[in-house]
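Following up on my earlier thread - several people asked me to post the actual chain instead of describing it. Fair enough. Here it is, all 326 residues.
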Amino acid sequence: MKPFKFEQATTAVQASQTHADAAPNARFISGGTDILGEIKESVLEVNILVSLAGLSGASEIISSDLGLEIGALVTLARIASDQSIVETYPALAQAAESVATPQIRNVGTLGGNLCQRPRCWYYRSPLFDCLKKGGETCFASDEGNKYHAILGAENCHIVHPSDVAVALLALDATVVVSNASGDRQMPIGDFFVSPDVNMLAENVLEPGEFVSKVKIPKPSSGTRSVYLKAKERQAYDFALSSVAVSLEVRDETITQAHVVLGGVAPVPYSVPQVDSELTGQKIREVDVQAIGQLAVKDAQPLSDNSYKVRLTASMVARAVSRLISE
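Reply from S.P.:
Thanks for posting it. Predicted structure:
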């Protein structure tokens, strides 16, 4: 591991300018559970790490009549245990609780979880010069692709590793991005970019920019949500497949639906055809198995991951069934 500088920023302006001046050889760090692994694995070389840990207000959770604001440095453990989140945004609390181990959740942050890099073993290995690292080949295309994408992938078959991103997309969250000039915000679905748009990045952040907070609108009294995750080990593991579902129900009719898949695509993956099919249905008439199949109708599995098609269909059916039975 090559030596690098570490700077503790105290203001957003200082953090942004330091990072921008040293780009592309600078990275922001919060909990460090992902980026330090990349550095130690020789996947990433940096000249400077800019710590965001000292930024004022970045570790706050603010609940109001308009909704929820969560600072980017709030730990996953706090999100999983915060009573206002557990009661009003259960999918988010469940997603945060599903991440890794208690030790990692106590250190890992919301912003870091959203911005973590892919866990593809070809990308993470210094032995493979894959597309994601500027090479010419996706080694997962032909074999060794058990954990890779079945949806939304063309040239690069990574899956997005974030659990909380899946829940936040289902909850219509907004990401606030800060730099030296101020803030800009966007729907969380616009924050992530697929390899087909930008092979070398997973989000829209430019040099000097970092996620400062996430906003979630307050749901109506008839809204319910859930997050389910299938993983190979019940302990520390990433999703083989996951699903977040948010349903608004009035007079036993689904008036709004948002279903998002994780672990199966390069980005948190919305399935609008499922949302449309659910909207307007009486909850007693929903065919959850058909809904599950509809969610994976465009799947294109690789040689070793066709199991994800059946698994994901089942996960969607279970999640919808759980919500309509409440």
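The CA atoms of residues 71 and 213 lie 4 Å apart. That should answer part of your original question.
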